[in-house]
Design brief:
- The protein is α/β, with parallel strands linked by helices.
- It has a single domain, classed as Response regulator (Rossmann fold).
- Helices cover 40% and strands 18% of the residues.
- It is built from 7 helices and 7 strands.
- The strands form 2 sheets. A 5-stranded parallel β-sheet has the order 2-1-3-6-7, with helices on both faces. A two-stranded antiparallel ribbon has the order 4-5.
- The longest helix is centred in the N-terminal third of the chain and has 13 residues.
- The protein is globular, with a radius of gyration of 18 Å.
């Protein structure tokens, strides 16, 4: 994978010519891609919250995951953030015991129209998709997908997250 990235970006690096040798990918990327990315995960399934942190640790992902199990906890985490928007990506369960992730998304999109949100649901339906799309752009995934390598790889690529060990 690293070789593919090197080949793809080398024509865009100022002063770089196409070479057969390796290039310094980290030097070619803007510093924002190398910073620790911040993720907010809202889900009332404590096992899922624990599993996501285990996956992050096992794969040594350069990200800080804040896990919360209530809408109130998510609001608090968002309000107490020193960044605007508060997280690089926010992952919300659609149906929670104490509320609805879609309602929280309405509040966020009004304040930060370009916030990056992924919805997780065990109750995927066209009605849910329509509700979310009526508010703004967001990805919708099944809950089971969050621990699949394909989902993690896509999320990491979208965020530009650097792994702490070679590919």
């Amino acid at each position: 994978m690293k070789a593919t990235i090197q080949k793809a970006i080398s024509p865009f690096i100022p002063g770089e010519r196409q070479t057969s040798g390796p290039i310094n990918v980290e030097a070619a990327l803007p510093s924002c891609y190398l910073m620790t990315k911040r993720v907010l995960l809202l889900d009332d399934d404590e096992n899922l919250l624990d599993l996501v942190n285990i996956v992050k640790d096992v794969f040594k992902l350069n990200m800080r995951i804040t896990t919360v199990s209530t809408i109130a906890g998510a609001r608090s985490a968002i309000l107490h953030s020193d960044r605007q928007p508060p997280y690089d990506i926010m992952i919300f369960d659609v149906v929670l015991a104490n509320g609805n992730g879609i309602e929280l998304y309405k509040e966020l999109i009004a304040k930060w129209p370009r916030c990056n949100v992924v919805f997780l649901t065990g109750y995927y339906s066209p009605e849910v998709v329509k509700k979310i799309e009526a508010i703004g752009p967001a990805q919708i995934r099944s809950k089971e997908s969050i621990v699949k390598p394909e989902f993690l790889a896509a999320m990491l690529e979208q965020l530009g997250v650097k792994r702490n060990f070679p590919c």
